[in-house]
Amino acid sequence: MNEAIFENFKNYLRNEGLKYTSERRLILTEVLKRRDHFDADELAAEMRTEGLKVSRATVYRTLDILHEIGVVNKATLGHKHQHYENMVGRQHHDHLVCLHCDKVIEFVDEEIEKRQEEVCKSLGFEMKRHSLQIFGYCSHCIPLVKDNKIN
Ligand SMILES: [Zn+2]
Ligand SMILES: [Zn+2]
User: Fold this and answer.
1) Nearest to 97 by CA among 131, 71, 68
2) Ligand 1 centroid from CA 106, angstroms
């Protein structure tokens, strides 16, 4: 299965006139190991601690390419920058994001998915993808937030 992903990545790069470098291949390898929500800087830093030489710019650019070919999902999870997650072998899902502890809870709701498709259809819009993030406080943080009067 992963072989097909590397092949697809290579073909995409070729079509875009970009080189399939060892740096890009390493980034894809690292991404496929991840099972969490991460940002580009975290990935770059972790690769560097593993002794892998990658430039920050290449990590950013490569994650965008991986998003284009559907390997990663991209979402703004409570911070101004983007988070990514490996979507290989995973189903589409939406996120609840805690503004206090940054916890991310994943969920799938068939009704929400269906309604979104209906809205697009009724407006003559062809959906390519969507991303839904709900921001608030998790059950653990609700009492903490109340006590501290944070909002
Ligand atoms: Zn929380
Ligand atoms: Zn997720």
Assistant:
1) 131
2) 14
Q: Which ligand is nearest to the CA of 93?
A: 2
Give the tens place of pLDDT for each residue, 112-139: 999 999 999 999 999 988 889 999 999 9
Q: Give the distance (Å) from ligand 1 centre to CA of residue 136.
A: 8
Distance from the alpha carbon of residue 27 to the mean position of ligand 2, in angstroms = 19
Domains of the chain listed by start with CATH number? 1-90 (1.10.10.10), 92-151 (3.30.1490.190)
Rounded CA-CA distance 137/73 in Å is 23
Ramachandran assignment for 139, one of left (phi > 0), alpha (psi -120 to 50 degrees), beta (any other): alpha
Q: Which ligand gives the minimal distance to the CA of 83?
A: 2
- Could you give the CA distance from residue 104 to residue 68 in angstroms, rounded to a whole number? 23
The residue assigned the tokens 């690769």 is 47
Structure confidence by residue, pLDDT tens digits, 34-84: 989 999 999 999 999 999 989 999 999 999 999 999 999 998 887 667 889
What angle separates helix 22-33 from helix 2-15, to the nearest 10 degrees?
A: 140
Ligand in closest contact with the CA of 75: 2
Ligand 1 centroid distance, CA of 80 (Å): 18
